[in-house]
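REVIEWER CHECKLIST
Item 1: Sequence provided? yes
Item 2: Single chain? yes
Item 3: Sequence as submitted:
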Amino acid sequence: MKFAGTVVFTYVVGVFASFLPYHWRAGLDKNWREFVLGNITWFLMLFGKQIAWPAVFIYWAIKGFPKSPWVAIYNYKGHEVRRMMRRDQAITEGVLTA
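Item 4: Structure as written out by the authors:
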């Protein structure tokens, strides 16, 4: 019974602890709340990744800890925005340099 409690505790701590690396990898700063309403699908995906954090971490480690495929965009074509974009799309559109 003690082992099961430890596993559950570790999992729950991991759910909350995974929040920060996912945000940092995407380039979000302390103003991440500004991105929520305009990017609700990205945040739902992030929540799913937090719930499945052990599998996501193993996959990420096997891939060699690559950059996040998502990037936070603060300025798009001269306009201030709060938008999440796929990294390859941002590079194609000239918003982000490779």
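Item 5: Key structural point noted by reviewer: The chain is about 55% helix and 15% strand.
Item 6: Recommendation: ____
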